[in-house]
Structures are given as C-alpha cells and as structure tokens.
Amino acid sequence: MLWQTVREIEALKPTFVSVTYGAGGSTRDRTVRLTGEIAGETTLTPVAHLTCVGASRDELCYVVGQYAAEGVNTMLALRGDPPTGLDTPWRPHPGGLDHAVQLVELIRSLGTFSVGVAAFPEGHPESTDLDQDARVLAMKQQAGAEFAITQMFFRVEDYERLMETSAAHGCTMPIVPGIIPVTNVSQIERFAALQGSAFPTDLAERFGRIADDPDAVVAMGIDVAAEMCQRLLDLGAPGLHFYTLNRSHSTIEVYEALGLGAITP
Predict the structure, then answer these.
(1) Considering the entire predicted model, what is its pTM?
(2) pLDDT tens digits for range 163-184
(3) Of 5, 32, 111, 127, which is most buried by a Cβ count within 10 Å?
(4) Which are the contacts of 203, defined by CB distance < 8 A and separation ≥ 6?
(5) Exposure on the CB side of residue 174, measured as CA atoms within 13 A
(6) In degrees to the nearest 10, what's the CA dihedral of 41, 47, 52, 57?
(7) Nearest 10 degrees: CA dihedral of 216, 217, 218, 222?
(8) Which residues pair with 237 in a beta bridge?
C-alpha cells in the first residue's frame, strides 16, 4: 500500500514528500531506511521528520548522520508531543533538547541541511496567544529554518492571520499550508482534537448529514479541500502540503480539480 501510494504521488511531481518520524526508537530505524529508499529509488525529494522526543542530543546527532548517509538532506525539525500524552506537561529527555528552535540549530550545525519547521494556524496548544506563536515561528527562522509547514486546518482565515502575524514579527520564509481531505469524519475529528485544532461546526454538520455514505463523504471531502486550496493559492500560498495518511486517491482528485492536469500513475 505505501509504495503504491509513493509511486502514485511521484506522478504528480511534487516539490517534496514528508515522512513522519517514529520517535523514541520504536520505528525510528525503519523510518530512516524507508526515507533513504525514497531518496535512492524514486525521483522524489523526501523531507525527514525529526523530533526531540525520546532522544538525547547525541542520539539526535546520530539520527541526523543516518539520514545524511542515506542521501536525505532535508529535515522537518519538530519538538514533538509529550510522550506521556497531550494532556501532560512536556519534559525533555535527559540530555536532550527542549524546543524545536534548538533542534533547528543542532541540525544546521551538523552540515548543509535544509531545515523546515511546523507552524500552527490556530496556535500551538501550549502558546499563550497567537502573537507568541508567531514570535516563536520567527525565532525558528532566525535559528536557520528555511520553510514551514502548517498543521492541518480547515479555515482559510486562520492561515491568512498566521501569515499576517508572523510577517509582523519578521518571518519571511515560505509557510506552506497543510491540507487533509476528509475521508472519514470521526478520524478527522480525532486528529483535530489531538493537535488542538478545530473541526468547524458548520463543516461537521455538512459531513454529518452524509456520514452514513462513505463515498459521499470522500466526494465532499475532495470538493471542500479543492475549494479551500484554490482560496489559499489565491491568497499567495507558496504551495500546498497534503497529509495523505499513506493514501493518494483524494490528493490526486484535489490536484486534478484545481486544474493542474490529469495524472497517469
């Protein structure tokens, strides 16, 4: 399933594909190998996720070295969620790092890597307000980040506000909006709750009326995502980042709905 999706996405010729990271060592080595295989066996440029969770500074340096050895030169530096759950306080690993800013600095100190970071259209769950969140994003850029990818969101207005607020703090790097076409309402609501974002009530009601028809949910998810993407592009978004969850159908449909061309995997 995964490699089928990789090949189907490859046909779209994206700027990059991001590969989520198994923190704490559980799937880390497998993730590094997979990311390296994408770099070596496809035309895609993989962006490897790296988090501060469950690793000392030395271990993080080792993982960066593993990625470099696999030919992976672009990374997404993330603090990561508290390993004991989102409703618990964040505590760094002994000898580890406490913030994504520090991880950006570490990666940049180890070689000529391109580093991206996360951005939060509705604010990070631990931020006191959106202004503080924008200041942190600007700090990530100052530390060496070259681009940002947002968490998923469903209101274009949240992205527009993020762009304005971050610019006011001197943030000039591209901020790519993160989009997830709805294919399963309960799953999306669960994901939104986990990252501290909102699934708008009006949207939930629209999907709720067709929740018993999976095909209709997928079709509406494509329509809603395509409309949102067009509005984002019209606002000047530098691109679109799709959270595919290892499935490509809806992303390809949105791509084609935007008039970017038919795809033959």
Answers:
(1) 0.91
(2) 999 999 999 999 999 999 998 8
(3) 32
(4) 154, 224
(5) 16
(6) 70
(7) 100
(8) none
If residue 159 lies in a helix (H) or strand (E), which one and from where to where? helix 156-168
Q: Dihedral sign, CA of 236, 263, 35, 43? A: negative
**How far, in Å, CA of 256 to CA of 260, rounded?**
6
114-119 vs 46-51, strand pairing mode:
unpaired
Host H or E run for residue 178: strand 175-179
Residues 6+ apart with CB under 8 A from 230: 258
Dihedral angle at the C-alpha atoms of 32, 15, 170, 89, nearest 10 degrees? -30
Does residue 90 sit in helix, strand or coil?
A: coil
CA angle 176, 240, 210 (to 5 degrees): 120
Q: How many CB atoms lie within 10 A of CB 241?
A: 23
Average pLDDT taken over every residue of the chain: 89
Q: What are phi and psi of 106, to 5 degrees?
A: -65, -50
Indicate if the pLDDT at residue 153 is higher than 90: yes
Closest CA to 183 of 122, 244, 239, 229: 244
How far is the C-alpha of 5 from the C-alpha of 217, rounded, in Å? 21
Q: How far, in Å, CA of 130 to CA of 143, rounded?
A: 20
- The two structure tokens encoding residue 43: 């035309």
| 227-252 pLDDT tens trace | 999 999 999 999 999 998 777 899 99
